[in-house]
Design a protein that fits this description.
By secondary structure, the chain is α+β, with helices and mostly antiparallel strands. The chain has three domains: about 45 residues; about 90 residues, Endonuclease I-creI (Roll); about 80 residues, Homing endonucleases (Endonuclease I-creI, Roll), CATH 3.10.28.10. It has ten helices and eight strands. A hairpin with a 2-residue loop joins strand 5 and strand 6. It is elongated and about 90 Å long. The two termini are about 40 Å apart.
Length: about 250
């Protein structure tokens, strides 16, 4: 099924005096379809597929939602027949790529995905007509330049599975590092190391979703500014790092 904008474009080309054959070759749409749109532009009601229910695998969805908000995008098929969901995963973390693919397969009705290799990263891709309904945060432009808010059904899933959501966000835009400091003890300079988690995202809304969920699971956090922007969220307290180690752990 082609969306209305695709139909309008094809009809506009015909209205310019182009032949059906010419428009069909350019758009990849059959002549019969274009001819039928000259009589009726809007699709018949029976042609519209029913909208999907929320995903039944709520654990996989909560994780995939975190990945999508960090490193995901949705794009329309060139022929307007559906959408691609792409999650970009760095080559350095093959375990993350596998986890992303498993979650996307679990949510995709066809349970199929494929990988597209690029320089330094892999896009894990799934095709489905209704990705924008399962990820309604999709929209034009960059995520940090528009409002990002969860639908009530999404918030219910995150409430049930907060650690999966946190893990997806950290796997996309976070990291676990080892910090160090030096102190003088008994006249001797000693080096101390301690683990720390960071999450960085330009979107105030996405950072707020992350910190609100941290609050719900009892993780203490602070904000570190990059220049004048509160760009980074830091988790450094020992008990909170231990919670993240138990439920998230370093990327691999």
């Amino acid at each position: 099924m082609y969306d209305v904008s695709t139909r309008k474009r094809a009809i506009a080309l015909v209205a310019q005096g182009r032949s059906l054959n010419s428009v069909s070759r350019e758009t990849g749409i059959s002549r019969a379809a274009i001819r039928s749109w000259q009589d009726r532009l809007e699709p018949l009601p029976r042609m519209a597929a029913p909208l999907p229910d929320p995903p039944s695998d709520r654990v996989a969805y909560s994780y995939l939602l975190g990945l999508y908000l960090g490193d995901g995008c949705i794009s329309a098929h060139p022929r307007g027949t559906g959408h691609y969901l792409r999650i970009a995963c760095a080559d350095a973390w093959p375990g993350l790529i596998d986890a992303c693919e498993a979650a996307l397969r679990a949510i995709s009705p066809a349970h199929t995905t494929h990988r597209v290799q690029a320089v330094g990263y892999v896009s894990v891709v799934g095709y489905y007509a209704h990705w924008p309904h399962l990820f309604p945060q999709h929209g034009p432009g960059k995520k940090h330049e528009r409002r990002i808010a969860l639908e009530p059904w999404q918030q219910a899933i995150v409430h049930e599975h907060p650690w999966e959501f946190i893990r997806g966000l950290i796997h996309s835009d976070g990291c676990r590092i080892t910090n160090w400091t030096e102190r003088t003890v008994g006249g001797e300079r000693k080096r101390y190391e301690y683990p720390r988690y960071f999450f960085a995202n330009k979107s105030d809304d996405i950072r707020r979703l992350f910190t609100d969920t941290l609050d719900k699971v009892g993780v203490e956090w602070t904000t570190l500014a990059r220049g004048s922007d509160p760009f980074n969220v830091s988790i450094a307290r020992k008990a909170s790092v231990a919670l993240l180690d138990a439920h998230v752990g370093p990327k691999h």
